[in-house]
Amino acid sequence: MCKRLFLLTLLISLLVGVSSFAAPVGIFEDTVNVGDDPGIGSTVYEGYVWKSDVLSEQYLITASGHDVWDGADDFHYAYNTVSGDVRVSADFEWIVKSNDWAKYGVMLRNTTDAGSTHRFMAERGLSDYAGMQGRNATDGGSSEFGTAWTTGATALGIQRVTVEGLTFIEGLAEFDNSGVWESRAINLVLSGFDDEITAGVAVTSHDNTHLAQARCWNVQYQANPSMVGELSFPMVPASANLGASPSDVPGFKIQCLKPLVTDGWGYAAVREIFDTGMFKGLPAMPGSQGSRISQFVNMRDTGNGAFSVDNGYPDETYPGVDPDETPAADPAAGDDDNNHGTQVTGYIQLTAGLHMVGANSDDGTIVEIGGIEVGRSGEWKGASNADFVFQVEADGVYDLRALHMEGGGGSSLELHEILMDGTRLLLNDVANGGSAVFAPAL
Fold this sequence. Notes:
Elements: H1 2-16, E1 30-34, E2 41-51, E3 54-63, E4 67-69, E5 72-83, E6 86-96, E7 103-109, E8 118-124, E9 130-135, E10 142-149, E11 155-163, E12 166-174, E13 182-189, E14 196-204, E15 212-223, E16 235-236, E17 252-257, H2 267-276, E18 290-294, E19 298-302, E20 340-350, E21 353-362, E22 364-369, E23 372-376, E24 384-392, E25 396-406, E26 411-418, E27 424-426, E28 437-438
Parallel strand pairs: 16-24
Antiparallel strand pairs: 1-5, 2-3, 3-15, 4-5, 5-14, 6-11, 6-15, 7-8, 7-14, 8-9, 9-10, 11-12, 12-13, 17-18, 17-20, 19-26, 20-25, 20-28, 21-24, 21-26, 22-23, 22-25, 26-27
């Protein structure tokens, strides 16, 4: 009986809510199956219902699609076109979960193209994981942002908010029908989103051969929302000022290595092996260690970042990790080396006030200035920009340290500086207005 009801619901979905009609469905101006192979998908308006003591419109969403992740997405999307600062939120429940990694949630998306930049406040089918994920560049890799959690949320929200001329996207969650939003992620956005974007609800089955169904209700669009979480920027104190650079050699010291064991490899492991020379009581893999001085941090083993020979900044290899290659060779010509770490150090000259730096990396990167962590990207991610805003208390020269962790797949690392007009430079690009960096001795 249950199977018959599901098939009947699916048939009604296909006849009434299918996106090819390109007609409004309730609060949504349009619905669409996103991706090259999104499969079947639909949004059906079910009318007004009482849920959690609220009378609201309810929708049944059916979706296939391989995922919302990597460089392109397959999913069903019900959305409105919006401009300016906006929040979209909704309550959700699963009806059919065809895969533990099926996802539902609320989304801000630049376009309905499969590789569009976006942010997705999502919960997966097991209801044991939720968080904000997204893509910073068209057709680029996907990343996680902020703090995930392991208990089911009763409602999800996502919003774009402008503060002091900077644009942030904030992921929100409500628990136990409390009516109170909790901030789960605040992400600075410098590019990739137009003023006019799409905002709505999304579902993917994570399996093109099966369908998933979810209900959502209490769908809300709010213009000009306020930030829910506390917006604060790390402060690099004047006490960290070195006074003058201990070096007059422009550039960075780059050190790379591979661990002997990879179980537990991640941020904590990279920090441990560079701080102590050991991981799990073992030194680095013999022959994997290397170091050099480079003008920029612009490396790749495979994949790519924002800067390459195409725009005048040839990529370099990871020293030591690619023993058979040289910086003059094509880095991607060698093996795809997995499970390695990089430490970048230098002395950076900064003025007092607000600054922005970023890391385009695959996988994660932590950036520290003056001994203060100014930001970190998601630990496991594809090549994409993660940008960090911080303050400097006084003009001066400060220690710079970045730790990069590569797990599996592609491997790349770039360190950027973003000027207040949005111009993105490789860090130490003094000729184009960037801050000077000087390299410690090898």
